[in-house]
Design a protein that fits this description.
The protein is built from seven helices and twelve strands. It is α/β, with parallel strands linked by helices and 247 residues long. A hairpin with a 2-residue loop joins strand 10 (197-205) and strand 11. The strands form two sheets. The protein has a seven-stranded parallel beta sheet, sandwiched between helices. A five-stranded mixed beta sheet has the order 8-9-7-10-11, with helices on one face. It folds into two domains: 2-112 and 219-246, 3-Layer(aba) Sandwich (Rossmann fold); 114-216, Dihydrodipicolinate Reductase, domain 2, CATH 3.30.360. The chain is elongated, with a radius of gyration of 19 Å. The protein has helices spanning 12-22, 68-78, 91-100, 114-129, 151-163, 220-233, 243-246, and strands at 2-7, 27-33, 45-46, 58-61, 82-84, 105-108, 134-141, 168-171, 184-191, 197-205, 208-216, 239-241. The structure holds NADPH dihydro-nicotinamide-adenine-dinucleotide phosphate (NDP) and the ligand O=C(O)C1=N[C@H](C(=O)O)C[C@H](O)C1.
């Protein structure tokens, strides 16, 4: 049984992950980290990662970018492999993750579902052939989501730019002089209700459109994906890993 600590145990994903671990015979939940009261989870909970005095095989992080320093301090100090699912990091924070991965194994993906990772491959293939089409990304999420655009939309734009490096992100579009430029990827964030997560990549050409779309129908797919990543990362040497390394 793999021993797990969840950073962000009180959150929507932390709760779904707790349920998935409790239903599995492959994992044991040691404790969680959250500022909130989590009595209903029946789980030993610390306020910050710095206070944790237990040791696990892996830490899974579904929290907030602001907890990054604490989670890296803890995992480096205890030499614990880390799965990062949290989104919303800036370049400085991404740099810290990359530096830490020289010391401990880190699995990092803004989307733990299998389907989105297939979508990324299809998008890259399409971008090679449809290089002069206009590319727009539309993401839709629930009204509680903190960051915009989604981490997955950023990951999709980065994948397109691996193939078409001259393109630049244009977030939203508004104004009296807002005509589309040829070298942009339009990225649009919709927020409402309980939408779990949808990503639609549109390649619009002259008289034809290709759309590649992924719809998440439950949060379980992300939790189960993070557990698959946990099994993978505990067997790795220090380094920076993502879904491409796992499949
Ligand atoms: N990679 C993937 O596949 C997926 C990634 N995510 C990402 O996981 C993260 C968590 O998502 P979700 O569970 O829906 O979010 P919630 O807002 O429901 O939960 C956030 C968790 O982080 C903790 N937290 C710590 N510091 C802060 C802070 N300053 N502000 C807000 N929360 C804080 C919260 O508890 P407390 O404040 O008490 O400490 C809580 O436990 C997000 O970044 C989301 O985008 C979500 C789904 C899939
Ligand atoms: O906050 C969420 O809910 C989700 N966040 C991730 C993202 O920002 O890409 C992944 C998923 O779409 C759900």
């Amino acid at each position: 049984m793999l021993k797990v600590i969840i950073n962000g145990c009180s959150g929507k994903m932390g709760r779904v992950l707790t349920k998935c671990i409790n239903e599995s015979s492959d994992f044991e939940l040691i404790c969680g980290v959250s500022h909130q009261n989590t009595d209903d989870l029946n789980l030993k909970t610390y306020s910050t990662m710095n206070e944790v005095n237990e040791k696990s095989d892996v830490v899974i992080d579904f929290s907030h970018h602001s907890t990054l320093d604490d989670v890296l301090d803890y995992t480096i100090k205890t030499k614990t492999p880390l799965v990062i699912a949290t989104t919303g990091y800036n370049d400085e924070e991404l740099g810290k993750i990359y530096e830490a991965s020289k010391i401990i194994p880190i699995f990092h993906s803004y989307n733990m579902s299998l389907g989105v990772n297939v979508l990324l491959r299809l998008v890259k293939e399409s971008a090679k052939v449809l290089s002069d089409f206009d590319i727009e990304v539309i993401e839709k999420h629930h009204n509680k989501k903190v960051d915009a655009p989604s981490g997955t939309a950023v990951m999709i734009a980065n994948a397109i730019k691996e193939v078409l490096p001259s393109l630049e992100n244009n977030y939203g579009r508004y104004g009296r002089e807002a005509k589309r430029k040829q070298n942009e990827i339009g990225i649009h964030a919709i927020r409402g209700g309980t939408i779990v997560g949808e990503h639609d990549v549109i390649f619009a050409g002259h008289d034809e459109i290709v759309e590649i779309k992924h719809i998440a129908q439950s949060k379980d797919i992300f939790a189960k994906g993070s557990l698959a990543a946990a099994k993978f990362i505990v067997a790795q040497e220090p380094g920076y890993y993502n879904m491409d390394n796992m499949f």
